[in-house]
Amino acid sequence: MVRGGSSGEDAGVTTETSAGDSLAGRLAAIVGAANVLTDADLRATYETDWTRRFTGSARLVVRPASTGEAAAVLRECTAAGAAVVPQGGNTGLVGGGVPRGGEVVLSTRRMQELGPVDTVAREVIVGAGVTLAQLNEHVRPHGLRLGVDLASRDSATLGGMVATNAGGINVLRHGMMRAQVAGVEAVLADGRVVSRLTGLKRDNTGYDLAGLLAGSEGTLAVMTRLRLRLVPSFPKVAVALMGMPDVAAAVDIAAMVRASLPSLNAAETFFAPGLELVCRHAGLAAPFAREYPVYLLLEAADINDPAPALAEVLAHVDAPDTAFATEPRDRARLWAYRERHTEAISKEGVPHKLDVALPLASLPEFVERVGRAVTEADPGARAILFGHIADGNLHVNVLGPEPDDERVDEAVLRLVAGMGGSISAEHGIGVAKTRWLHLTRSAADIAAMKAVKAALDPKGTLNQGVIFGD
Predict the structure, then answer these.
(1) Does the predicted TM-score (pTM) go above 0.85?
(2) Which CATH number is 22-110's, of 3.30.43.10, 3.40.50.720, 3.90.1150.10, 1.25.40.10?
């Protein structure tokens, strides 16, 4: 299926494919013939996102290995009037990194620079195509890591993580991806390069372009190199998994632990239906003899062992079943119940992924209402929820509706907006949520964002249809 198709006629660029594409030859002269993919079989993995819900046909895929090559590629595409979709590890969930119909896909995966680690500043310069796992392996000998962590760490590229302002499991302690960015080098649609990689802590010389590009979803520029802040990789870690009677209890306990334990690294939640899927598809035994409606997973990490402090806090919590782990294998076993949700849900079908955020006080009411909203919109649909409870971020995964049937999307996102929430907590707008951007951003907000887009990409070359729609 093709989602959010765009002809590009109004923007002065084209997404049409032609036999014997002369652009492919000019791009091959820049990046090498092996890095210009025109064959349908070779393009296929770049043309469908991780959910399998969003797909389209690319004119070709081009894979530059450096800022210079990316700049030359974009100059050629602009001269040819060709629309471009920037793509990192293609782990996005809202269709923002795959073609909608005949664009050039510019993959950053070959941008593999891993610079020397600045242990004084705790920073490092890396290529946009480096994965999160590769970065952490590179900096681990220095006792450091990136402050953002994701279940897709082996596939998600750092450029894509910055472009979508990724969140993950450690936001409560270290913030989202934008907070990890100390500098950026990027190529504008016309091939001009903007570069601020000094990493100075105090640099108040105008607009923060790195902050602007973080979360821009490839609509303003192609990021090629990044200077990233690092955090200590604490050697001592403790994990607790608890069965909860309801969401309100989980919210209260997470808030209480966060207030009393500075070493709290993550506070995650999932529910009985999701746990059943994980146990069935991953072959895991249930964590407890009895089933609970809600589960709360906490992780603390520090230089000194945080287990005694975490245990002391939890001693005052009314939780009949608690599993506690400090050894790596045991911690991984508890984390698997949470991190394998995405895999298990995908094995059930093609989900509608609705990543949302609510005020913490509203989470219990939202969880109570969202199931009803889904079944009222589609009686055959079912919602599987999990998320980052300390941040108010829940992932509403809906199984049952056809990929193009947006009735449940409409119902859930309007419910979120009506409760003062955000229709996208960490995945972005992509093409999946453009219809509902106005629910949580004012007309003035959207006009200002469009003005920035028009200033940096006046021909509309980059990521047509993303954020704003057609």
Answers:
(1) yes
(2) 3.30.43.10
